[in-house]
Structures are given as structure tokens and as C-alpha cells.
Design goal:
The complex is a heterodimer. Chain A contains 12 helices and 19 strands. Chain A is α+β, with helices and mostly antiparallel strands. The longest helix of chain A has 15 residues. Chain A is globular and about 65 Å long. Chain B has 17 helices and 18 strands. The longest helix of chain B is centred in the last third of the chain and has 18 residues. Classes of the chains: A alpha+beta, B alpha+beta. The interface between A and B is large, with 88 and 96 residues. The structure holds flavin-adenine dinucleotide (2 copies).
Chain lengths: 348, 474
């Protein structure tokens, strides 16, 4: 398999101009997406890394797309800040570009929103080798076409991202986690439904089938105890307060619960869809973001069942056709044609 | 059949305006310095009518402009001379409000505040709150990626739109996004938001709703200088607090607000409003820290709202500030640049200097939390040359914002007003990419022709598709 390595903007442009079909790869944590197919040249971006600008008082940083999330999060942590959308697979080496291209958020997306709420700007090399900027480096901006938002979930199909700017927030000073086991799935789902519409500012609200809820709170240590108590009163249930709060959630966001499964899938969900999803032959799984986001492990028959049921999903690992369904032709086709007229970049 | 006859067949009398007197109200938006006479105004009542109108325009090569309430401050809904205005105000139904799913599916002409009103009984609300929220429409908000006082914490409109039904300029109807907070594949609905009507007309919009914060803590602090107020904002951020809103008003803006609504503000050089929001236990703790930070910031006076009425009183002056400035001056231009928060002081100082140099008063009201300035340049349009000077001064301010690493617009859009400044912020290749996308979706250049893109590049296609983009920008 032909492979090129680019560690600078110019090298990315050069690679784009000389290869007919390219597949960018950050760290390779989503192998279903970053493994080249017949006729494609692999563009390895792991050398395009480093934080370019970071001003903690602005809540903004800019980094090269190949920068590992881990490196970014360590830098932020030193200033008491974090990426509130809690991107998955940081421990395994996921990069900023790969995370944007795949459009992935983790358990703490519940509190302030997902990746799409935090991306501020991008510089990418389009299919003609031109460098294009969208968005900016300030927390508020409405000038020009928002190419940065177009990159979210794009799987690299419009171009190779080289540089990304993000909004960040101050980390919660302390966190606490409550685990509640219910007698049956219906009860657990009903409890989640209730919690979703209350003004409780939950950091995370996860459903682990068949009938367990995990709830994470964050804030001032002085208020956490009181809020936890109130939560227990609302639910009329004591539950279990986890001792290993941090380590537990790192495991969740690194999708450790999928480790044994051959196929990993992200499914955009809704509360109403949960019962239908639960009727399919899926493996280990967890609903994040109050039931709006499912990460599931499965075997081939699970994936087939998703497809047969017409449920949109993205395969991160273990299958050939990662994206279902394809984006709506009448809009996607034109944007793709404008940015990558020669079809250098595959979609999925 | 000609274009107008076909339109007449589509819209009953009374819903197709063509007489001069009927057209006048649609000749401009809230930026009244620009006026253009459309050929006709259509008032659709359903999305099929919008789609048919767009298809007619495509077939006849007639430019069109979608219009909500026309509150754009940048000429975004200015008609194209001889083109069609598609006025969407009558498409104002909330089609579905599902509290369990925390979504509202709305027609584009629904007024922003109406969504929160309908969601209130369920303890939910729609977060983006432009000051124009009692009149501006969701369709207009989507086109401009509108903001408000709460953007730092909650983001702009784009984050709150989950799905869109759109008719492209060629008349194709597509659904982008869905009903979940998450999606797979390119975030095309996120991309549509903020493209100012250049890529099609939004027919139906799915919005995310949020639980209404349980408790608020609203503080008003008075300062002896704008700089001191700006410093206080930095201190708040450095303390690790994340307020829902942080707003600053300068002396001129305070005077205007007082004259208009008697909010009871202290007469000082600068006022800072900070609002914390969240669960009550958390807000209590945050308020303690905030009190300490503000004490150390050298505030001359501090007021804390003890009731919802007092909170509303604090906000009343701020919300009325724009319209109130109308009392101080016959005319004004609202600017909307953004600077990195740490450069606010520098920006304000330079705006003060420019104000002196041009001999025009500038009032400052701004979203300090996210560096979004709203300098109001006061002028008298009846005095010859004043409008031109005011525009020049406003332009200087925009260039300043870009120079300091910010943006030409935080929320009001580029429209016609700022398109000439786009090359200050974007490189030729950036603009070319925007033009290529526009041209691919709208080969005849019909949708909101003449807005946003300054016409930097030539037609990127060799032969083949001939478009009139070049002439449009001439
Ligand atoms: C289960 C598992 C465990 C692992 N454990 C470890 C470990 O412990 N330690 C370790 O070092 N490594 C580990 N790896 C490998 C490591 O995760 C990869 O090297 C990782 O860095 C993948 O990068 P990525 O996830 O950011 O995106 P990728 O998987 O590389 O790419 C995802 C998608 O994004 C696109 N893309 C990526 N970057 C760009 C860009 N800049 N512009 C446009 N499109 C782009 C790709 O084309 C693809 O469509 C593991 C991998 C797996 C699957
Ligand atoms: C007093 C005052 C205060 C304001 N405060 C704020 C503020 O705090 N924050 C802020 O962001 N803005 C503010 N604005 C600006 C303005 O209200 C917003 O930009 C608003 O979103 C415009 O909505 P509208 O319905 O009036 O749209 P219009 O002015 O009618 O149109 C605006 C743009 O949207 C396009 N458009 C309208 N509907 C559609 C559709 N369905 N599909 C595609 N394109 C469409 C139009 O073509 C045009 O380009 C303020 C304006 C005023 C007058």
C-alpha cells in the first residue's frame, strides 16, 4: 500500500497535488475509516502535530490536526480547562483531526453539547491543493461560510484538515458519580426521561442496558453533596456513589466497554428510538448524552440488523462500509464538487 | 407565460404584492441606508409554495431574497432590484413541540421568543436570544447564525439547530440533519446555518430545547472607567467562573438607556452586568466567588438582584440600549465586530480615538464575555457627508477588529454592508472556496444575490458553466 507522510502544511499540499486518491489518517483509532482501500494512498498526518496558540483567558486554542487529544488535554489541564465534549479514544491515541472528521463526542457531551458546539475554525487543504480557512479564532464569529462546521463528521471527504481552533471551558472543580440499578429497562428509561428535562446541569447521563443509569455531577465541592442528595430525593433511590469517579469515566470515554467486540459503531439516537435499538442483536453498549448517542459493539449480524432497520450509523472499527446512509445527494454532491472536484478524498 | 403571470397563478391576490405602495415596506431591512425595489413580494403560507416560487425563479433566472422580519442590520434581507422577495412571516407555526425529546419543529417564520413561550410550560426554553427576539424569525436567525447575550456559555444558533429542510436554489428539496443531538456524516445543517440565505431557503427547522436554568444571580457593578470594567471581566474568567452572560455599557449607552426606560442605573463611566445561572446550590457557591472577584476589581457600586423583578430591571436598560440610542441621535450605525477578550481594552481605546478623529460620538454596548463589540456610531443623515463619515468610521472599527485577531461580525452577518471588508479577514483562496460552493449550489446566482461574497475571484470554472457572479460583484 502506497503511503506518504506529511508533517507540514506544504507537504500536505504536495501530497494532495501528486496523488489521485488519498486517505488521511491521524492516529488510526478508527481503523474502519482510516484504512486505505484499493487505489488509495495513505496520508499519514501523525507528524503534523503541536499546539500553535493557546490563551487560557480566551478559552481558545489552535492546534495542528494531527495533534493527539491527550497532548491537548494535558496542556489544558495545567490551566484548569478541558474539552467539554469529552472526545473518545484519547488514551488510544486519537488525534484532533480524526475526532473532528469522525464527529465524535464522549459522555460529558450532556452538559454543554458536542464537538459541533465547540469547533471555531479550520484550515484545510481542498481537493485542488488549495489552503482554505473557515471560521476564526474567537469564541463568537459569524463571518463567511462556516467550513469548520462542514468538517464535523466529514470523514475527510472535503479536504485534509491541517489546523483547528476550539473553544474550551474551565473544568469542574470536583465531580461525583451516582449509579442506579433499576428493576427493568422501562423504569431506567423513564427515570432518564425525567432527568433530561430538569435543570440539574448533569455532566453526564448514561444508560447502560439493560437497566442501569450513571449520572455524573460537577461543580463546587461545597454544593456537590447537596445536589447529589437532591438527585436521590427526586429519584427516590439511594443508588451507589462511585469511589473511582475519574478513572471510571476515562474508561467510558475510551470506549473500554467495547474492547471485546469486533465491530464498533456510533449511532445517533433519541429516547424514542431506544426501545427499537434494544430489540436488535447488539453487543456491549452504552447510551450517552441522555440517550442521544449510542456507542455499541457488535458482530456482523448486529450491523446487518441496524442497516435493515434503516438506522443511521457510523462504523469506527471492523467493517468495510462505515457510513449509513450516505448524505443527501442534492446538497452534498454540490459541496463535494466545489471542494474536491477530482474526487481525491473518499467518503468513508 | 412570463414570470409574473406564473407567480400570479401560484399565489392568490393579496398574497402577491406588486403595487408600488405595497412594495415600499420591503425595500430595506433595519439598515435603512440601503434601499432596492423588488419586482414583487410573495407571501407563502406553506412550504410547497416556497418551493414552487424558487423553482419558478430558477426557470426564469430571477433572483430572490428570503425574508423573515427584516430586522437584519447588515442589509441581509435587502431585495435585489427587479427580483422576488419571499416573505416568510406567515409561515409561523410551531409544527411540533416534543418536551420529552427536547425539540421543537418550526416553520421558518416563527418568531424566536415564541418558541421559548411555547416551551415554558414544560420547563424548557430555546437558548439563543438576540435582542431582537420578540420580532426576529427563526429562519432569519438560522441564516445569520444569530447570537445574543448568552453565546459564551451556550453558543450561537448553529449549535441549537438539529435539522433543516431546505430548498436549494435549483429547487431541490433536501433534509439535512435530524432530530438527535448527534449525527453521522458531514454536518450539513451546521454548515447551512450562517450562510445568509445564499445556499437556499430553510423551509422547516428542528431546534433543540434546554431545561430552563433553576436559579439566576444577576449582578450590576459600576466602574470609573471602561478599562476597569473590562479588567473585571478578565478577573471573572480567570477565577474559573462561567457566567451565562457578561455585558458592558459605556456612559453614553447608560445615558441613552436611562432616558428611554429609567432603569435606575448609576451614572458612571461603565456598567458591568454579570449573570450566573444553574442549579441553586451551585449558583450560591459561584455567587460567593463572584462577590469576592468583583470586590477586588475596584467596583464603585454593586447591586445584586433580590427578585425576578429586580433582575428584569437590570436587564431592561441593557435590552433597550440600541433603540434608546435613537433618542440621542437622529441616526446611527450598529457595528458588530469581535476581538479576543484580552484585547477589548485596546479596541475600546482605539474606538475612542477614532471617535475623536472623526468628530462623531460612539456609544458602546457589548457582549464582554465573548469579545463581541457593538459600537453605535451616531450621526445625522440630514447633514451632508455625515453618513459617509459614519460609514468610514464603522469600517475603521471593523478593520481594527480583524487586525486584533477577531472577526468582522459576531452575530449580525456580513450582508451587503460588510462584504467589502471580507478580503481583510479572508484570503483570496478562502473566498474562492465560498464562491465555488455558492456556484455549485446556485449556478445562476439567484439566492440572495450580491450579499456576503465580495467577488474576489473570477468564475472558477473553465468554460462550461457560465455564471454572472463576476458581474454581480462589479
Ligand atoms: C482499539 C484500539 C486501541 C488502540 N490502542 C492504542 C494505544 O494504546 N496506543 C497507541 O499509541 N495507539 C493505539 N491505537 C492506534 C491509535 O489509536 C491510532 O494511531 C490513533 O491515533 C488514530 O487517530 P484518529 O483516531 O485521530 O483518527 P483516524 O482513525 O486516523 O481517522 C479517522 C477518520 O478521520 C480522517 N482524518 C484523520 N485525520 C484527518 C485530517 N487531518 N483531515 C481530514 N481527515 C482526517 C480519516 O481519513 C478517517 O476517515 C489503538 C487503536 C485501536 C483501534
Ligand atoms: C433592535 C435590534 C436588535 C438586534 N439584536 C441582535 C442580537 O442581539 N443578536 C443578533 O444576532 N442579531 C440581532 N439583531 C439582528 C437581527 O435581528 C438578526 O440578524 C435576526 O436573525 C434577523 O431575523 P429576521 O427574521 O428579521 O430576518 P431578516 O432580516 O428578514 O433576514 C435576515 C437574513 O436571513 C435570510 N433569511 C430569512 N429567512 C430565511 C430562510 N427561511 N431561509 C434562508 N434565509 C433566510 C434573509 O435573506 C437575510 O439574509 C438585532 C436587530 C435589531 C433591529
Amino acid at each position: 500500500m502506497p503511503e506518504v507522510f506529511a508533517s507540514s502544511l506544504e507537504e500536505v499540499q504536495e501530497a494532495v497535488r501528486t496523488h489521485a486518491r488519498l486517505r488521511p489518517k491521524g492516529g488510526g483509532t478508527k481503523p474502519a475509516l482510516s484504512t486505505p482501500k484499493e487505489g488509495e494512498t495513505l496520508l499519514d498526518l501523525s507528524g503534523l502535530r503541536g499546539i500553535l496558540e493557546y490563551a487560557p483567558e480566551e478559552f481558545v486554542f489552535t492546534a495542528y490536526a494531527g495533534t493527539p487529544l491527550k497532548e491537548i488535554e494535558e496542556t489544558l489541564r495545567a490551566h484548569g480547562q478541558y474539552l467539554p465534549f469529552h472526545p473518545p479514544l484519547a488514551e488510544q491515541g486519537a488525534t484532533l483531526g480524526g475526532t473532528v472528521a469522525a464527529g465524535l463526542s464522549g459522555p460529558m457531551r450532556e452538559r454543554f453539547g458536542g464537538l459541533r458546539d465547540f469547533i471555531l475554525g479550520v484550515r484545510f487543504v481542498d481537493g485542488e491543493g488549495r489552503l482554505v480557512r473557515g471560521g476564526g479564532k474567537v469564541v463568537k464569529n459569524a463571518a463567511g461560510f462556516p467550513f469548520h462546521r462542514l468538517m464535523v463528521g466529514s470523514l475527510g471527504t472535503f479536504g485534509v484538515m491541517v489546523e483547528l481552533s476550539f473553544k474550551v471551558f474551565p473544568s469542574p472543580r470536583a465531580t461525583q458519580t451516582l449509579r442506579l440499578a433499576y428493576g427493568n429497562p422501562g423504569e431506567a428509561l423513564a427515570a432518564m426521561e425525567r432527568l433530561r428535562v430538569l435543570p440539574l446541569d448533569l455532566l453526564a447521563l448514561d444508560l447502560i442496558p439493560p437497566a442501569t443509569l450513571e449520572i455524573r455531577l460537577g461543580g463546587f465541592p461545597e454544593s456537590l453533596g447537596k445536589r447529589l442528595k437532591r438527585l436521590q430525593e427526586i429519584l427516590q433511590k439511594e443508588g451507589e456513589v462511585l469511589a473511582e469517579d475519574e478513572a471510571h469515566w476515562e474508561g467510558v470515554r475510551n470506549l473500554r466497554f467495547l474492547e471485546e467486540a469486533p465491530i464498533w459503531v456510533k449511532v445517533p439516537s433519541t429516547l424514542a428510538l431506544v426501545p427499537k435499538l434494544e430489540g436488535l442483536p447488539l453487543g456491549p453498549r452504552r447510551y450517552l448524552g441522555g440517550g442521544e448517542l449510542l456507542y455499541a459493539g457488535m458482530e456482523a449480524k448486529g450491523l446487518e440488523s441496524l442497516r435493515r432497520a434503516g438506522i443511521p450509523h457510523l462504523v469506527l472499527k471492523g467493517a468495510q462500509d462505515p457510513l449509513f446512509p450516505l448524505p443527501p445527494e442534492a446538497f452534498f454532491r454540490e459541496v463535494k464538487l466545489a471542494l474536491d472536484p477530482r474526487g481525491r478524498f473518499p467518503l468513508g | 407565460m412570463g414570470f409574473l403571470e406564473e407567480l400570479r397563478a401560484l399565489f392568490p391576490p393579496g398574497r402577491l404584492l406588486t403595487r408600488e405602495a405595497e412594495l415600499v415596506p420591503y425595500e430595506s431591512d433595519a439598515l435603512t441606508a440601503y434601499r432596492k425595489r423588488p419586482l414583487a413580494v410573495a407571501l407563502p403560507e406553506g412550504k410547497e409554495e416556497v418551493v414552487e416560487a424558487v423553482r419558478l425563479c430558477y426557470r426564469h433566472g430571477v433572483p430572490f431574497v428570503a425574508r423573515g422580519s427584516g430586522t437584519s442590520l447588515s442589509g441581509g434581507s435587502l431585495p435585489v432590484e427587479g427580483g422576488l422577495v419571499i416573505a416568510l412571516n406567515r409561515m409561523n407555526r410551531i409544527l411540533r413541540l416534543d418536551p420529552k425529546a427536547r425539540i421543537a419543529v418550526v416553520e421558518p417564520g416563527v418568531v424566536n421568543l415564541e418558541v421559548s413561550r411555547q416551551a415554558a410550560p414544560f420547563g424548557l426554553y430555546y437558548a439563543p436570544d438576540p435582542s431582537s427576539q420578540p420580532i426576529s424569525t427563526i429562519g432569519g436567525n438560522v441564516a445569520f447564525n444569530s447570537g445574543g447575550a448568552h453565546c459564551l456559555k451556550y453558543g450561537m444558533t448553529a449549535g441549537h439547530v438539529l435539522g433543516l429542510e431546505v430548498v436549494t436554489p435549483k429547487g431541490e428539496v433536501v433534509r439535512l440533519g435530524g432530530e438527535s443531538l448527534e449525527g453521522v456524516g458531514p454536518d450539513l445543517h451546521g454548515f447551512f446555518v450562517g450562510t445568509e440565505g445564499l445556499l437556499g431557503v430553510a423551509l422547516e427547522i428542528t431546534l433543540r430545547l434546554l431545561p430552563k436554568p433553576e436559579a439566576y444571580h444577576t449582578l450590576l457593578a459600576a466602574y470609573g472607567s471602561l478599562e476597569a470594567a473590562g479588567d473585571a471581566v478578565s478577573r471573572v474568567i480567570q477565577s474559573g467562573l462561567l457566567p451565562g452572560a457578561m455585558e458592558i455599557m459605556d456612559r453614553l449607552a447608560i445615558e441613552a438607556a436611562e432616558a428611554a426606560v429609567r432603569a435606575g442605573y448609576p451614572r458612571v463611566e461603565a456598567l458591568l452586568i454579570v449573570e450566573l445561572e444553574g442549579p441553586k446550590e451551585e449558583v450560591e457557591e459561584e455567587a460567593r466567588l463572584l462577590a469576592q472577584v468583583i470586590r477586588e476589581s475596584g467596583a464603585l457600586e454593586v447591586r445584586i438582584a433580590q427578585s425576578e423583578a429586580e433582575r428584569q430591571a437590570i436587564w431592561k436598560g441593557r435590552k433597550a440600549a440600541f433603540s434608546a440610542v435613537g433618542r440621542l441621535s437622529p441616526d446611527y450605525i450598529v457595528q458588530d465586530g469581535v476581538v479576543p477578550r484580552s484585547r477589548l481594552g485596546e479596541a475600546l481605546k482605539e474606538i475612542g480615538r477614532l471617535s475623536q478623529e472623526y468628530g462623531l460620538r460612539v456609544a458602546n454596548v457589548f457582549h464582554a464575555g465573548d469579545g463581541n463589540l457593538h459600537p453605535l456610531v451616531l450621526y445625522d443623515g440630514k447633514k451632508p457627508g455625515q453618513l459617509e463619515r459614519a460609514e468610514e468610521l464603522a469600517g475603521e472599527i471593523l478593520k481594527l477588529c480583524v487586525r486584533l485577531g477577531g472577526s468582522l461580525t459576531g452575530e449580525h452577518g456580513i450582508g451587503v454592508e460588510k462584504k467589502g471588508y471580507m478580503p481583510k479577514m479572508f484570503a483570496p483562496e478562502d473566498l474562492l472556496a465560498m464562491e465555488r460552493v455558492k456556484e455549485a449550489l446556485d449556478p445562476k446566482g439567484l439566492a440572495n444575490r450580491g450579499k456576503v461574497l465580495p467577488g474576489y475571484g473570477q468564475s472558477p470554472h473553465q468554460g462550461g458553466l457560465k455564471t454572472d457572479l463576476g458581474e454581480l460583484y462589479a
